[in-house]
Amino acid sequence: MKHRGPDEQHSGSVSRFEPFVTIPLKSVVGFLKTTLVIAELEVRKLRHDPSELLTRAIQPALWLLIFGQVFARIRAIPTGGIPYIDFMAPGILAQSVLFIAIFHGIAIIWERDLGLVHKLLASPSPRAALVLGKGVSAGARALSQVAIVYVLSLILGVKINWNPAALAGVICAALLAAACFSMLSLIIACVVKTRERFMGIGQVLTMPLFFASNAIYPISIMPGWLQVISKINPLTYEVDALRSLMLVGGRSVFGIGVDMGVLSLTLALLVIVAGRIYPGIVV
Amino acid sequence: MRILETDALTRRFGEHTAVDSVSVSIDAGEAFGLLGPNGAGKTTMIKMLTTLLPPTSGSARVAGFEIVRRAREVRRVIGYVPQLVSADGSLSGYENLLIFAKLYDIPRSERRMRISEALSFVGLADAATRLVREYSGGMIRRLEIAQSVLHRPRVLFLDEPTVGLDPVARRAVWDYIERLREDYGTTIFLTTHLMEEADSLCNRIAIMHRGRVAAIGEPAELKASIGDDGTTLDDVFVHYAGDRLDSGGGYRETSRTRRTAQRLG
Question: How confident is the model at residue B114 (pLDDT cuts 50, 70, 90)?
Answer without folding.
Answer: very high
